[in-house]
Design brief:
The complex is a heterodimer of chains A (412) and B (259). Chain A is of the alpha/beta class. Chain A folds into three domains: 117 residues, Immunoglobulins (Immunoglobulin-like); 57 residues, no CATH class; 180 residues, 3-Layer(aba) Sandwich (Rossmann fold), CATH 3.40.50. Helix content of chain A is 46%, strand content 20%. Chain A contains twelve helices and 15 strands. In chain A, helix 3 packs across helix 11, helix 5 runs parallel beside helix 10 and helix 10 packs antiparallel against helix 11. Chain A starts with a helix and ends with a helix. Chain B has a domain of 92 residues. Helix content of chain B is 73%, strand content 0%. The chains are: A alpha/beta (412), B mainly alpha (259). The interface between A and B is large, with 74 and 71 residues.
């Protein structure tokens, strides 16, 4: 009896061994996979994290799958080698991210896969590890729901800087009201009086061209300030000013500004509604038309202040040919050389922003100028010390220290 | 109804591109190009024609762009789909038009105020990030790879940083430019001039390529298949200027030059 039992046991054992050898080995399990909403975004991405497997080889490839369904419908979302996409590769600053090189961290942008309405929907994810094309390991599916975030902690450096600038601004306003602020001489702005005086003597109009910017352009806003001061002087001298416009909204704002200036100068009767007029919202149509007007009317002075692109030389050259004294100012660096060549005076970038304060001497505007100078000081000091610290850190291979410095000046 | 459909079919058929239309298009292109170029000589009626045509065409073009790219997809279609939320921005937008009616023009202030606030809110953080923090980061970032940089690359990065600091000194308004500040800001001006020279050359090159495009077209349309459009228009204009100059010889100030 015992003999039969032993034979049966041996037979069953052989069967099980045979079965074990004939079946393919089951893939290993990738454990510790987590899927969470990508922090500090609008709600269209999910972050997957799992630990790096020490047994991964250079041939190992990870494939991330995503699905918007309860079961199946997997879509390949990403594919990368085992040495890529670690926690260090996520582009978030150190105060908003605690990833390490010992884990994989993958940002899956769902709007690129499933369309734009990703926020609030539940998605499932799984990760597979392939080696030479064969499945080596696979994770269990994990769900995640992307949501939009109200606060972007990754931009903390921006808001801190903004708060500092606001504080400095209020300090500067208070200082300007109490003691006044010094502004250095700006030749181009001193020439404005000369230009208006010339126009008055010659009995010819002044053309003030505010460029092709919209009201959200800083140079256009600066130009509107200058227009206010120029038109005040024009009203005082009882000269003529013409302001051709590209943007109807800028035109409406400038109308109010010019009207206000005439009233402040005590000459509301001299104000005419057609001082500001709309020409065209097509760049070169505008340039052609203003060129035509300048060449026919031959104004005594032309001001080109604001946002200009390719039409800068077209306008300034015609003004120069017509014999007008020309003062230009823009913050578009590529157009400044053309104004240099064709105009008598040119305000370079920041000088245009300073012009409103320079001409009006108002404490509020002067303090804005002081804040701009403070900003420049911050940039200079940051560049100076930043270079020393980063260079020293890089030379000594203090990678974390260098990253901290670079993160502090990270823009988005 | 059928008559209307037939008329429409006939009218649409007029605009099917045929060789005759191509030739006419060539003459218009050549004519307008030469009319605009004629301004290099002096202001004249041909330039005025091209100028006003350009202005009108530009207005017409932008009107249809606003109609089909903004009004219909962003206002009309959502309203037809009962998405009433678009009424708020639409009313704000329409309030701008009240400028034309003095009695209710105060309403436009709401639209303008919203746009100014929106523009400032959008510009401040973006400007702070791109014009300020990004400039600092961009200047110091190259040196983070110092261990692998060549001596020339290190010198280049330091030169850029030095240039940034000097140029910023030039734009200091609340400090009088004398002594050391004047020297540093003068170096900043040299950096600026080098940049402006490079930008000038670069832009002039781009403009020349546009000019070549126009010349290429004038050359193409000077062929017999376009009935010598370039030569005919050019010679006609030269003849006009000669005749006009002879007719007005001795007269002071022509009608074209009148203010």
């Amino acid at each position: 009896m015992i003999k039969y039992k032993a034979i049966l046991t041996l037979f069953l054992s052989l069967l099980s061994v045979n079965a074990a050898f004939s079946a393919e080995p089951a893939p290993a399990v990738i454990s510790g996979l987590t899927a969470v909403d990508m922090p500090y975004d609008v709600g269209n991405a999910v972050m997957l994290r799992w630990a790096i497997n020490p047994s991964d080889t250079p041939d190992t490839v990870y494939v991330v799958h995503a699905s918007s369904q309860q079961a199946g419908a997997w879509v390949e979302a990403d594919r990368f080698s085992a040495s890529a996409k670690t926690g260090d590769d996520i582009e978030l600053p150190f105060w908003a991210w605690d990833g390490s090189a010992m884990e994989h961290a993958v940002k899956v942008e769902l709007n690129n896969i499933f369309g734009e309405s990703a926020a609030g929907s539940v998605f499932r994810f799984k990760v597979s590890a392939l080696e030479k094309g064969l499945l080596k390991a696979e994770s269990a599916p994990v769900p995640a729901t992307p949501v939009g975030n109200w606060f972007r902690l990754d931009r903390l450096n921006n808001i801190v800087l903004l708060i500092v600038i606001v504080i400095v601004f209020f300090w500067a306003v208070s200082h300007a009201k109490r003691k006044g602020l010094f502004i250095r001489r700006i030749a181009g702005l001193d020439a404005i009086d000369e230009a208006i005086g010339r126009a008055t003597e010659m009995g010819k109009p002044i053309y003030y061209v505010p460029g092709i910017g919209t009201m959200s352009s800083i140079s256009t806003i600066a130009s509107a300030f200058i227009l206010g001061e120029v038109s005040k002087k024009v009203a005082q001298y009882d000269s003529q000013i013409k302001v051709p416009h590209y943007d109807p909204i800028v035109m409406t704002v400038c109308k109010e500004i010019v009207k206000q200036s005439y009233m402040e100068a005590g000459r509301p009767d001299s104000y005419r509604e057609d001082i500001n007029f709309f020409v065209s919202q097509d760049q070169f149509s505008y340039a052609a038309s203003v060129d035509g007007m300048i060449s026919r009317e031959k104004p005594a002075a032309c001001f080109f202040m604001g946002y200009f692109m390719a039409e800068s030389l077209l306008l300034a050259e015609v003004g120069a040919t017509s014999g007008a004294i020309q003062i230009a100012g823009t913050d578009i660096e590529s157009q400044l050389p053309f104004f240099f060549t064709a105009c008598d005076y040119t305000l370079i970038g920041e000088e245009l922003y300073a012009a409103g304060a320079y001409l009006s001497k108002e404490p509020m505007l002067l303090s804005a100028l002081k804040v701009q100078d403070f900003g420049k000081l911050v940039v200079m000091v940051s560049v100076f010390f930043g270079i020393i610290l980063v260079a020293a850190g890089a030379a000594l291979h203090w990678d974390s220290f260098v990253n901290v410095i670079l993160n502090l000046f990270k823009a988005y | 109804m059928e008559l209307f459909a037939n008329l429409w079919a006939w009218f649409s058929g007029l605009f099917v591109i045929t060789p005759a239309w191509m030739t006419l298009g060539a003459w218009v292109a050549v004519g307008l190009t030469i009319f605009i170029f004629s301004f290099l000589y002096k202001d004249n009626p041909f330039f005025k024609i091209a100028e006003h045509l350009y202005l009108g065409a530009g207005m017409g073009w932008w009107f249809q762009v606003y109609l089909y790219s903004i009004f219909i997809p962003k206002v009309w279609d959502p309203l037809m789909a009962h998405q009433w939320g678009v009424i708020i921005p639409a009313v704000l937008g329409i309030s701008l038009v009240t400028q034309f009616i003095p009695r209710i023009s105060w309403m436009s202030r709401y639209g303008f105020t919203f746009m100014m606030g929106y523009g400032a809110g959008l510009a401040v953080p973006a400007g702070l990030s791109t014009d300020f923090i990004a400039q600092i980061g961009g200047t110091i970032e190259p040196l983070s790879r110092m261990a692998s940089m060549t001596p020339f690359a290190i010198f280049n990065s330091l030169l850029v940083a030095f240039g940034v600091i000097c140029v910023l000194f030039y734009f200091f308004f609340s400090v009088e430019h004398k002594g050391a500040v004047k020297k540093v800001s003068s170096i900043g001006i040299y950096f600026l001039m080098i940049y402006f020279g490079a930008a000038f050359g670069n832009t002039v090159m781009a403009r020349f390529s546009l000019l070549y495009g126009r010349f290429d077209e004038l050359y193409t349309y000077s062929g017999s298949n376009y009935f010598y459009a370039t030569q005919v228009i050019l010679i006609s204009m030269v003849l006009y200027f000669v005749v006009h100059a002879l007719a007005n010889k001795g007269k002071k100030g022509t009608s074209e030059e009148a203010a």
